[in-house]
Amino acid sequence: MHSDHSLKRTALIASAMSAFLPPFMISSTNIVLPSIGKDFNMNAVQIGWVVTSYILSSAVFLVPFGRLSDIMGRRKVFLYGLSLFTLFTFLIGVIPANSTLLIATRFLQGFGSAMIFSTGMTIIVSVYPPDQRGKVLGINVACVYLGLAVGPFIGGILTQHFTWRSVFLLTAFIGIFLVIFIALKLKGEWADAKGEKFDFAGSLIYGISLVTLMIGFTGIPKATGFALVTAGIAMFIIFVLYELRIEHPVLNFKIFRSSRTYTLATTSALINYSATFGVGFLVSLYLQTVKGLTPLQAGTVMLAQPVIQTIFSPVAGKLADRKEPQSIASAGMALTALGLAMLTFVQADTGIPYIIATLALLGFGFAFFSSPNTTAAMNSAEKKFYGVASSILGTMRLLGQMFSMGISMIVFTIIMKDAKITPENSGLFLQSQKIIFIVFAVLCFAGIFLKTRKK
Question: Which of 167, 200, 260, 286 is deepest in the core (most CB within 10 A)?
Answer without folding.
Answer: 167
